[in-house]
C-alpha cells in the first residue's frame, strides 16, 4: 500500500461558532511523516481544530496547507485526508470488506483494484480472516482496526484520529495505541492524534500541541513539555506538578526563591527578581528526617503505595506537596502525622514569572 508523506502548515487560523470564538490565532507546522498530538481538556478546541483540517464544521479564517497546497476552502473529499472518528462510524448493514471498500467505490476505483487494496488494508490491520463479518460481530478493538483500514485504503496524505481509543477499556487502549503507532511507522503517514489523555499523547507522539481555550499553549516533544512547561496550565496538565507561589530574590549574583510563608530555596542559576511560581515535580523532592539548609519543614498527611513508588502528600510551605519516593523491599514507610523536612532539587525546577 503506497502512502505519500506530506507536511501540514496552519497559519493564523481563527474559527467561530456564531458569535463564540473557538480557535484563535493557530500557527502550527507538522513535519512529513510525523505523529503529532493535539492534547487538551474538554472544550479546549482540539477536536474543532482537527475537524477544520478535515473540512468539517464552519469555514475558518486563515490557511491550512497540506504538502504546500492550501486546502482551507476545499470540500472534505478533495483534501487528501482520512479521518477515524471516535465512534468508528462503520456502516452496520455492510460487511467488513464492504465497509473498507466504501471509500474506493465512491471514488470510482476499478473493481479489481478495489479488491487488491482492500485485501492489503485488511492484512495490514491483521483482520483478513474477518472480511465477511458484520460490525456487530466484532469487538471494540476490531472495529477500531476496521475503521483504520477503511481510512488508509484510500491512501490519504494525512491521517486524522479523533480520540479513537476512548471507547476501549484501559488494558485494550494500551495494546491498541502500540498497534496504532506501529501502523503509522510502517506506513510513514503524517498523523494527527486528538486526545485528552496525557499518557496516550506521551507514549505515541513525536511532538504535541497543548491547547486551552482555543489557543495553543505550547508545542514540543513530550519530554520538553513535561520538563520545561512555559506556563502553569501546561505544568498542571502534563503530570503532577507542585507549584509554590513566592518571589525570586537576587543578591550579590546569587538567587533564591522565597515562598509565601517565608521559607527559602536556593536556586542554581540567577533568576529574574520578582513574583514567581516555582514548579517542582514529585520525583524531584526528597524527604529528609533532619532539617538542612534550604529544606522545608512539613507533616505527612497521606500515603499511597504505587508498587515501584510510595507517594506522600505533605503539608509544607503553606500548601500540600506531592512527593514520590522509590520503593525498596523492607523499607519502613512514614505514617500520616510524621514530621519531616523536604529537600527540593531546584536544578530541575521551572520558574514561571507571575503575570501582573
TrEMBL record:
InterPro entries this protein is in?
Answer: AAA+_ATPase, ABC_SmlMolc_Importer, ABC_transporter-like_ATP-bd, ABC_transporter-like_CS, Mo/tungstate-bd_C_term_dom, P-loop_NTPase, Transp-assoc_OB_typ2
What are the entry keywords? ATP-binding, Nucleotide-binding, Transport
A Gene Ontology cellular-component term: ATP-binding cassette (ABC) transporter complex
Per its record, what are the GO molecular function terms? ABC-type transporter activity; ATP binding; ATP hydrolysis activity
What is one Pfam family matched by this protein?
ABC_tran
**Annotated signal sequence range:** none
Domain ABC transporter span(s) in chain numbering: 8-238
Which superkingdom, per the lineage?
Answer: Bacteria
> Which family does the record assign?
Belongs to the ABC transporter superfamily.
Q: What is this protein called?
A: Polyamine ABC transporter ATP-binding protein
Q: Which organism is it from?
A: Pararhodobacter aggregans
Amino acid at each position: 500500500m503506497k502512502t505519500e508523506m506530506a507536511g501540514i502548515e496552519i497559519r493564523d487560523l481563527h474559527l467561530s461558532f456564531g458569535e463564540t470564538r473557538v480557535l484563535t490565532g493557530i500557527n502550527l507546522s507538522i513535519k512529513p511523516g510525523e505523529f503529532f498530538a493535539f492534547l487538551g481538556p474538554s472544550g479546549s478546541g482540539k477536536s474543532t481544530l482537527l475537524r477544520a483540517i478535515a473540512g468539517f464544521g464552519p469555514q475558518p479564517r486563515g490557511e491550512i496547507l497540506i504538502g504546500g497546497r492550501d486546502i482551507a476552502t476545499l470540500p472534505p473529499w478533495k483534501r487528501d485526508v482520512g479521518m477515524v472518528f471516535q465512534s468508528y462510524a462503520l456502516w452496520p448493514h455492510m460487511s467488513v470488506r464492504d465497509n473498507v471498500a466504501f471509500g474506493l467505490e465512491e471514488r470510482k476505483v476499478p473493481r479489481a483494484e478495489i479488491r487488491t487494496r482492500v485485501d492489503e488494508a485488511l492484512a495490514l490491520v491483521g483482520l483478513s480472516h474477518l472480511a465477511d463479518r458484520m460490525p456487530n460481530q466484532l469487538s471494540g478493538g476490531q472495529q477500531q482496526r476496521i475503521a483504520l483500514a477503511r481510512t488508509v485504503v484510500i491512501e490519504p496524505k494525512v491521517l486524522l484520529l479523533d480520540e479513537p481509543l476512548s471507547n476501549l477499556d484501559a488494558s485494550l487502549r494500551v495494546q491498541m495505541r502500540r498497534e496504532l503507532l506501529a501502523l503509522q511507522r510502517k506506513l510513514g503517514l503524517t498523523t494527527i492524534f486528538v486526545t485528552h489523555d496525557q499518557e496516550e499523547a506521551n507514549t505515541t507522539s513525536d511532538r504535541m500541541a497543548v491547547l486551552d481555550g482555543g489557543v495553543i499553549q505550547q508545542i514540543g516533544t513530550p519530554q520538553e513539555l513535561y520538563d520545561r512547561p512555559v506556563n502553569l496550565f501546561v505544568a498542571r496538565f502534563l503530570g503532577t506538578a507542585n507549584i509554590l507561589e513566592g518571589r525570586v530574590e537576587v543578591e550579590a549574583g546569587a538567587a533564591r526563591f522565597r515562598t509565601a510563608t517565608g521559607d527559602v530555596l536556593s536556586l542554581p542559576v540567577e533568576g529574574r527578581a520578582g513574583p514567581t511560581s516555582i514548579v517542582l515535580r514529585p520525583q524531584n523532592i526528597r524527604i529528609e528526617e533532619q532539617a538542612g539548609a534550604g529544606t522545608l519543614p512539613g507533616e505527612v498527611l497521606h500515603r499511597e503505595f504505587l508498587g515501584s513508588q510510595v507517594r506522600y502528600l505533605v503539608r509544607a510551605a503553606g500548601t500540600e506537596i506531592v512527593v514520590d519516593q522509590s520503593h525498596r523491599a523492607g523499607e519502613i514507610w512514614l505514617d500520616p502525622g510524621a514530621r519531616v523536612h523536604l529537600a527540593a532539587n531546584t536544578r530541575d525546577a521551572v520558574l514561571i514569572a507571575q503575570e501582573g
